[in-house]
Amino acid sequence: MNRISLATEFKNSLKKERIYYESDHSDEFLDKIIKDMEHINIYYIYSNKASNSIKFWGEDAVIIWDLNYWKLFQKYLLQVENCKRFNKNLIQGIIGIISEFISDKYKSIPEISMFVKQISDIYGVKIQVSYDDCINLQDVVEKGKLFSLFHEIGHLEYHKQNNELVKVCEELVRDMFCSIANKDLSSLGEWAVLGRKSVLHIKYNKNEELLDEITADTFAVMNMVNYFKNSDNKSNFQLACECAIAIEYLSAFQVMFNAVNEAWDAHYPEMKLRFPVRKHKIDSYINELAVARDGLCGQLLVIIIQRMFYLDKNECKRLWDCIDDNHVDNSDIISCLADDEFICTAIEDAFS
Ligand SMILES: [Zn+2]
Question: How far is the CA of 351 from the centre of ligand 1 (A)?
Fold first, then answer.
């Protein structure tokens, strides 16, 4: 199907779903990148779900690029920089941003929206840095976008099953997961059980979706490195650091953001239809995919970066130090905003 008729058919089908809204804006950076990619269709939306995805029609596919997701990620990074620079409480700062997002997301339920807005009003930290002044953050956002774009293309190629690089990535993921022993999972702490589950699922072909996601990440990192290799007059080490840091920031944000969203969405019937609040029997909304991607596959991505940029032993060590220095610990945000008891109390209070 040609591009134009595909786009029209696609838009009509999305309109039926009533969840996506086309945006009048596009993403300049992304437009530049996909200019030469004939087979890639991008549909820009601005949604209060803030999530990127891919939709398939037979052999064709359209990448749904949510501008709101990137706006939020940019704000999150600015807050990280802001709190670092002015020595403010980062946990409060991020809670402020995410609760503002939740408030916006549920604006069709005014009681909830207003209640959650108060959290951001009370805890929020004013951002005093501007994006234009933070060249390093602009780099993180651009590399993050590139990684995400290639991730979605990875899904597309995985779906088609005729891309050699995807096959290599899939093999690599299988090899890596099959070589993980129980003792290697101890670093995951309380998530070791989920880690073990994901290892068994990949090993015995039990979770196609998980394999698809992780293969797409591996495909994305390889394409990302190829894109930057020998460019920008930068050293391989510097480029390796920039790629790894961007992925680190994006994945820490994504894990937290997914956990918080899933936790709140799970209570949607109580919020929308005012059903009695029901506590869910789960400890946390961190799932198998998050542990497999962030906890296990994250290391594979760094190893790929190290190999593809030909880093020596010393540089490999320095790269890990760089990643550690830029790690944002979002566990307190998850413990607070994705906590079932907290959400139940908030819903009850909002309606009281
Ligand atoms: Zn994906």
Answer: 36
Cα 35 to middle of ligand 1, angstroms = 22
Å from CA of 31 to ligand 1 middle: 20
> Does the structure show a pLDDT above 80 at 11?
no
User: Which whole number is the average pLDDT over 45-74?
Assistant: 88
CA 54 – ligand 1 centroid, Å: 8
> 153 C-alpha to center of ligand 1: Å?
9
- For ligand 1, the distance from its centroid to the CA atom of residue 73, given in whole angstroms, is 17
Point out the domain boundary residue: 95, 110, 130: 130
Region for residue 204 given its phi and psi (left: phi exceeds 0; alpha: psi -120 to 50; beta: otherwise): alpha
Distance (angstroms) between ligand 1 centre and the Cα of 128 equals 33
Residues 116, 251 share a domain = no
Residues 179 and 232 in one domain: yes
User: Are residues 108 and 185 located together in one domain of the fold?
Assistant: no
Residue 205 lies in a domain: yes
Q: Could you report the per-residue pLDDT of 245-298, keeping only the tens digit for each?
A: 999 999 999 999 999 999 999 999 888 888 888 777 665 667 777 777 777 788
Domain boundary among 84, 106, 130: 130
Residue 266 sits in which domain range? Answer: 133-343
pLDDT band for 3, please (50, 70, 90 cuts): low
| Residue 339 domain-assigned (yes or no) | yes
* CA dist., res. 152 & res. 52, Å (int): 9
Per residue in 187-242, pLDDT (tens digit) is: 777 778 888 888 888 888 888 888 999 999 999 999 999 998 877 688 999 999 99
